[in-house]
Amino acid sequence: MPLDFTAIDFETANGSAASACSVGLVKVRDGQVVDRIGWYIRPPLGHDHFVDWNIRIHGITPDMVVDALGWADQLVDLVEYCEDDILVAHNAGFDMGVIKAACTATGLAVPEYRYMCSLQLARKTYHLDSYRLPMVALAAGFEDFPHHDAVADSEACAAIMIHAADRWGAVDLPELATMAGIRVSQLQPPVALAG
């Protein structure tokens, strides 16, 4: 099984995990980036207010997403792009939380992707003062990218995974996870509370 995966990164409008306003996706096949794409997302109603803090971080304003499709209309494109890949993200709990929360907010089934976290992997692979994405990307030889641009962050994440796999001598992500002592996790639908 070759080193195939899709790196993913979301930016959000506010503190709600359901407030995705941008996504970046980078496809890796046999250890090489073969495609990249990103788009704006109109956050679901009730999660669609933009706070100044988030705007300062990523530069996305309400005007920029006003004509974008909403989560419910874009999920099919995201799933189609990712295929059956393992998803990777830096601090993957955040990005997988966005998928789960946005699906829940729009009444959609949560796609049950397997995923890995490049932040967890970085802590097992590099000896750094900081494991923030720009610092880890620099250690992996990927530098000078516009941090908090979803596509650029996905590319940085992909570069980390490829570089780490090479350092560990792993041929695919499951083997890399085993060697580094981290998990390939599974995105689960929310647990229904008994009434």
State the CATH superfamily name. Ribonuclease H-like superfamily/Ribonuclease H
Q: What's the CATH architecture name?
A: 2-Layer Sandwich
Q: Helix and strand string, N-terminal first?
A: EEEHHHEHEHHHHE
Low-confidence stretches: none
Largest sheet: 6 strands, mixed
Question: What's the quick description here?
Answer:
The protein has 195 residues and is α/β, with parallel strands linked by helices. The protein has 8 helices and 6 strands; from the N terminus they run βββαααβαβααααβ. The longest helix is centred in the last third of the chain and has 19 residues, at 150-168.
Q: Could you explain the architecture of this structure?
A:
41% of the residues lie in helices and 18% in strands. It is α/β, with parallel strands linked by helices. It has one domain (5-183): Nucleotidyltransferase, domain 5. Helix 4 (92-105) links the parallel strand 4 (87-89) and strand 5. Helix 5 (118-125) crosses helix 7 (150-168) and helix 6 crosses helix 7. The mean pLDDT is 95.
